[in-house]
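Hi all, a correction to my earlier message: I attached the wrong file for Methionine synthase II (Cobalamin-independent). Here's the right sequence:
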Amino acid sequence: MTKPIAEQTLTKAPFKADHVGSFLRPERLKQARLQRETGDITAKELRTIEDEEITKLVEKQKEAGLNSVTDGEFRRKWWHFDFLSGFDGVEFFETDKGLQFNGVVTKAHGIRVTGKIGFSDHYMIEHFKFLKSIAGNAVAKFTIPSPNMLIHRATFEEGIYANDEELFDDLVTAYQDVIQALYDEGCRYLQIDDTSWASFLSEEGRETLKAKGQDPDKLVQLSARAINESIAKRPADLLVTMHICRGNFKSTYFSSGGYEDVSETIFGGLDVDGLFLEFDDERSGSFEPLRHVNRPDLFVVLGLITSKFGELEAPEQLKARIAEATKYVPLDQLCLSPQCGFASTEEGNQLTEEQQWEKVRHVVTIAQDVWQ
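and the right structure:
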């Protein structure tokens, strides 16, 4: 049973009722960001509004029964570009066209590498410090994109790196440094978000990679190496989880496919403490790949409750699916969450704020019934 926040302490496992981290931006915040873009308010005024809305959000998370709280990614436009552009040598820019999401197109934004990648400071350290200052007796959870997202999404100016290994080494070092900096400010729960794995989950995705002259099997190993080396120096009491996503933009998706083709790597080759996995519909496949979980200290967070639509899943159906997953992983190694965040970008998914909180409360209630 999920304990009240005052009694809960963070162990090397996610909470039984957990969440991916992003929340719908309130209308006041959306308007303030538009006003900042047009110059009608100052950066300081926007920051004040962000602080106030994040403070409200943290209280709502605790009221809903969550033991870990995030800032909802309220200060970000994108879940990944904003963070990655905070490294030395990486910048945010406007592209010619947006990303295609099942018929829906995103804003035309991207990141590019213009110099050697490094960490001298990162503006999101201040974001975490504020979250930690208002979290109270809840655990302040911070979400960052995987290093794989820079490899897969950035464009590179010529002549910066002589080879891929040199780039890889700089990127991993930058991640090790920023993770340590977050830890030094009190972070004990870090979530790494990664959509690059989706390219390996379907035959279509693999064929697309091959058409670009890339070897999917080699890329799988490189992706695992990027994760493992980035977190290799983390302190023993820092919980690190990873969320694997198939895309989440305005309630649409980017790809489909089960975990089978990369299950041995995901479940047996990653040094994370927990995995947040999408299992909210048939696009994610069956639980059978979970048979490759070979560590008693690896926790699997079942994303059975969709964040894309407001209708609540039937409680008994959810409990039956959790029971089905126990055929492959013991119940005490399982947890429950929505399959993704509610707003991977500032636009958000197609549901109301009240439906969002109903979903969160649904996670908590089901978890209390199952793990009691």
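Sorry for the mix-up. The longest strand covers residues 109-118.
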